[in-house]
């Protein structure tokens, strides 16, 4: 029997027998996908699901978008090269044209592009090497709650100490600063005062000769912490961090790997704050669903020697064609505006579900990068303030969503945040269906928990 004729159970059993114990998604999303179109995937048993994971935000235009499919087919039909290292081709030059045209003029006019090996974490590794080479310094300032990838240097930037402590070699002179998390303010004050203190903390640390931190090579941040639980940075805070770093000649690296290309309601998330970073890391959506990663940075930092950074698969021509098609479509069809509108619609519905549900502590995010944080209403977090994150309840809601035909991801502290990353092309009707399924899942889980003797 061919694989196309097998059901979910047979394929999942074989996967468990042959693949690494490090596999993650199949443990909570037990399906094998037969086909996919737009926002919908169909498993081997014929069950359809709304996909609000979308390749961890990679599929900006959804599954098998005609514009992307046509771009890939043109490359294959014309006998174009598929892999060229960093040797240029017309496809590559067109991709760079589209990429630079999508960026704000003040950044694009001074930009250089470094193609990396294909994952987002490779772009982060390249960015770290870039700023360390350009400044001659080593220390990197990152932020609590951050996620920048799973390779060694990127892992050192992660806020989650449990993941880092499980492997060696992650001591890279990285210092983690407080991120202005409104719901769980690191200073316990929240509001404007919370992010103002957070930026003042950074400024004081950089100016304090007794801080214990040597002159930094760079500061790296996510405008919206994605895996960290859909936590958006306040625009005034971003503007202050940009001022602080610029006045001290510290390169500012903005990680747009998940938030970039329309997902937050702007083409790039840093545009909400009106800032111009020194370095931007990009992957996921810019490859149109295929592996591609780049670092775009100010020409003043371009002091690398030839071959100083490389990667065998940085010449992925299919990804460049798919990426060009995706970038152009996002710009031509105002997809960022659509994402903002659909994000507002979904967030409103999620907030309505959360109303009166003590087990939901926060609904947040930006555009179509949204999160709902589940909490234990009977337990305080760190002895005060908001309730403790409840990863078990979030996992139960994720499972209840899956049973009803909705794929969502978890993230944040204790994996207690249900995350929504649907294709940016999702329709209003689909948003309403997603919201309705989530509402039913919450009712099923929370209702069961509220009944004596019934487990969630």
TrEMBL record:
Keywords for this protein: Aminotransferase, Pyridoxal phosphate, Transferase
Which intervals of the chain are annotated as region Disordered?
A: 1-24
* GO MF terms, alphabetically ordered: pyridoxal phosphate binding; transaminase activity
Presence of the UniProt keyword Nucleotide-binding in the record: no
Answer whether the UniProt record assigns the keyword S-adenosyl-L-methionine to this protein: no
The record ties this protein, via PROSITE patterns, to: AA_TRANSFER_CLASS_3 (PS00600)
**Which parts of the chain are coiled coil?**
none
Report any Pfam family annotated for this entry.
Aminotran_3
Q: Which domain of life, per UniProt?
A: Archaea
Alphabetical list of InterPro entries matching this protein: Aminotrans_3 (IPR005814), Aminotrans_3_PPA_site (IPR049704), Dat (IPR004637), PyrdxlP-dep_Trfase (IPR015424), PyrdxlP-dep_Trfase_major (IPR015421), PyrdxlP-dep_Trfase_small (IPR015422)
Q: Which cofactor does it need?
A: pyridoxal 5'-phosphate
Database matches in NCBIfam families: dat (TIGR00709), PRK06938.1 (NF005393)
Q: Which family does it belong to?
A: Belongs to the class-III pyridoxal-phosphate-dependent aminotransferase family.
Protein name per its UniProtKB record = Diaminobutyrate aminotransferase apoenzyme
